[in-house]
Amino acid sequence: MGQPQVSSLSSEQRRKKDFEYKIEDEWWKKFSAWRDVSKEEFLDWRWQYEHLINSPEKLFRVFHWLSEEEKKEIVEVSKVYPLLINPYYLSLVNPNDKFDPIKMQCIPSKEELIDKASPEDPLAEESDEVVPNLVHRYPDRALYITTNFCATYCRFCTRKRILGKAIVSGVSSLQKIVDYLKQNKQVHDIVISGGDPLTLSNKDLEKILSELSAIDSIDTLRLGSRVPVTLPMRLFDEELLELLEKYSDLLWLNTHFNHPNEITEVSYLAIKNVLKLGIPVNNQTVLLKGVNDDVEVMRKLMLSLIKIKVRPYYLFHCDPTKGIRHFRTTVWKGLEIMEGLRGHISGLAVPTYVIDAPGGGGKIPIMPNYIISMSEERIVLRNFEGSIVSYDPTGRALTKKENQRFEGIISLLEGSFDKIDSLDSERIKRRKSTSKSS
Ligand SMILES: *Cc1c(COP(=O)(O)O)cnc(C)c1O
Question: Which atom of ligand 1 is closest in space to residue 362's alpha carbon?
Fold first, then answer.
């Protein structure tokens, strides 16, 4: 489809110091509605805002091939959960793919209306709201909900409850939040989220950053924003970049790529602009059925992220929020994916898989079992290849047992054997062929 993919960049291209990535391809012109839109317009975030697709009718003007049935479904669902997509994000859809991962993330589906019983706020964020728009759950950090607006509404939004309501700016609660933080000096780290804080005006964002950074006990300001994914050209705005630079000593950016198709030339340039300011960029992915619940897709996503210097931070299990249940897959699938990442690809590309506990228990990390068995003197572990090792957990000097009495895992616990190698391991085969085996 001529979609610009940064993953297709050769390492030679990326190594070149003077390399400036040029947006050669005008991929949006494949949609007749945007045939006459110039590069200057399409890459201007103001143009994107002016052409927001915020009604089914506007969507049908671009996706004119939809059937009457599909149109009816979109109209019905968007009455309950509004539709909002900017042209850039919509242009990443491959119209020939019925199950396109971008389409699934932004186009309403009738499955959103099936679930009537799930809670709207499963994480009970509202119960931990200490002052309006500030959720204080963990000892040393808090979450500031600065707006309920986003550059695109994700169908799987965990805060679906606030999406599409009248736009409320959290800036009005800023003074109360500052007062609270001054009285609660144990809070050092503020997650500035929403909605999307990078949809705020530069003026409002400046107000937030200047007030929060002036509090002595605050060391870290984390922007939680999907703008690098859904509206990357916002990060071409010089005024915004200057503003971010001013607070770069405190700033981190946590963004939210879910699929390799979202990593485009434009998002690459946006990330580069942020990194240049000395602001580290991390990524939080949500495990979504039909979008990225696949080992190969997830490997490609994570490896493409580290190519653009974005560090995978969390892989979230999808919350049981009303209206997003159809995006949930099993925890077994999540564990299978983690099994396919750890050890197999660069450790830099491996996120922590977490479940956000219902009721406000916070994030709980989960991973495949690497501990096979334990005794007082030994812990038996397995590695990503399936090799099994016996390890001294005590720090004491251990002696091998004289008489080998046991077979299997108990022999490792009892100390007569140290390891059982996986027969299929490439590493073991390599060792045998270079005969340096230990
Ligand atoms: C996720 C979250 C944070 C940040 O948690 P980390 O594990 O430090 O990334 C803070 N507050 C709330 C309410 C959160 O949900």
Answer: 15
Q: What is the dihedral of CA 67, 70, 75, 79, to 10 degrees?
A: 180
The fourth-level CATH superfamily of domain 129-365 is Aldolase class I (3.20.20.70)
At a CB cut-off of 8 Å and minimum separation 6, what does 262 contact? 92, 102, 229
pLDDT range class, residue 427, cuts 50, 70, 90: confident
In this structure, which residue's CA is closest to atom 12 in ligand 1? Answer: 143
* Token pair for 230: 């859904």
Q: Helix or strand or coil: residue 202? A: helix
Measured CA distances, 250 to 218, 243, 332 (Å) = 8, 12, 37
**Distance from C-alpha of 16 to C-alpha of 27, rounded to nearest angstrom:** 25
Looking at residue 17, its pLDDT comes to: 38
Which ligand 1 atom sits closest to the C-alpha of 123? 15
Would the CB of 313 count as within 6 Å of ligand 1?
A: no
From the list 210, 207, 272, 283, the residue with the least C-alpha distance to 241 is: 272
* Residues 30-65: tens digit of each pLDDT: 999 999 999 999 999 999 999 999 999 999 999 999
The model's pTM is 0.93
Task: Report, as residue numbers or ranges, the catalytic residues.
Answer: 137-138, 141, 150, 154, 157, 159, 319, 356, 363
- Domain(s) of CATH 3.20.20.70: residues in the chain: 129-365
H/E element, 17 = none
Nearest alpha carbon, ligand 1 atom 1: 363
Rg (the chain; Cα; Å): 25
Report whether 334 contacts 170 (CB < 8 A): no
435 Cβ contact partners less than 8 Å away, ≥ 6 residues apart = none
